[in-house]
Amino acid sequence: MKPFRWNLKKREQLGSLLVGERSEIYSGYLDEVRVCAAKVVARSDNRKLIFVGRSPENLFDYLSGIMAETTWDSNLDNLNISNRFNKVKTIAKTMPDKYRALKDHFEEVGISPVQLIYHKAGICFVDLVCEGFTFDRLFEFYDNWCNEEGVDKQPVLKKMRFLGITGRQKNSPNTWRWYQHAEWLESNVHISAMSISVSLQMWSHMGDYQPKMSNCNFLEKWGDDSMLDPPRDKKRLEALRTAYDIYQVSLTEKYQFVKELAKLQEYKEPWLRAISSELRRAVKK
Hints:
Low-confidence stretches: none
Helix content: 40-55%
Order of helices and strands: HHEHEHHHEHHEHEHHHH
Number of strands: 5
Structural class: alpha/beta
Strand order of the largest sheet: 2-1-3-4-5
Radius of gyration: 19 Å
Number of helices: 13
């Protein structure tokens, strides 16, 4: 069961909900979102982007506007789950209903193991990362699921990329990188993993302090019908209005976004140049 999330593309459904206070963003936040979003797309390897949890939701909101009226419009989705510390095998054994609900959620998003095998381009999970525990649990879930159903893991793993957004540190040979300390990555060479660094201000704002427009889908809520209810409390509505503003801004920033893409090393890739051409054409319509 996929939790409810307001569709920012459907202004008519939001109505008077957009009238009122907004959650605060700091000066320069939208510029940082644009730069980060460009890197996310460039490092996706032309895979479908799956934004995990709620922390990166403004990146999803921004890219939803940027990619409107392009072939990449359907290449974005969010996976509202929260599970950093609960071992998957323990959940399957002690809370089988929650485990089944998680499977149903992934199937609804279209990213079950079998669905991934037949997915044309593959997927790229995107999340803010501190130590990478959420990605650890995601891998454990797929590993366990494949083992249960006798699905060959290698074709599934080849369709995955994990993109972790980290707070920028001083670059040195001793810099801690989450993907260099993930044992599951060491033993599964078919999985691709990368990082994108952002300012500590942006990382902390998105990960620690920013109100979110969606309710948190933590373990005890998996499969709970209450997650289908539209959130209407003050903080959620303030976050909704800010998200809508970001979406509206992004609709006007296709050219600026292309300029950010052109600065990146990955811009030499034909698929990324093709996206840039689509964005330019979308502006002219």
